Amino acid sequence: MKHLKKARKFGRERDQKKALLKSLARSLVLHERIKTTEAKAKELRPYIEKMVTRARKGDLATHRYFARFFDDKPRKKLINEIAKRYDKRAGGYTRIIKLAPRKSDSAKMAIIEFV
Questions:
Q1: What pLDDT digit, counting tens, does each position of 43-65 carry?
Q2: How many domains in the chain?
Q3: Has residue 8 been placed in a domain?
């Protein structure tokens, strides 16, 4: 039964889904705006917002925590640039803009970006 299980599967196993979210988060941090499917964007939003909230602290423990997810460049950008930008903001760091469907398979597309 699927009670209390809200997350999307994307036709992947758990490890593959975690890797997908990690790579989407890395791309979003580096480029600050990515174009992906609407479902992936909606799944990425809470994942990245929790990361930004945690990165706002900016101490050594935070750097060590994010070393599990990112290499140097995205980790430093997230903690030193993106998190500093949202010091006074209480959540809602990203926005999702819906786009026209993709031509090849008519998948709903969206842009996810930092506000």
A1: 999 999 999 999 999 999 999 99
A2: 1
A3: no
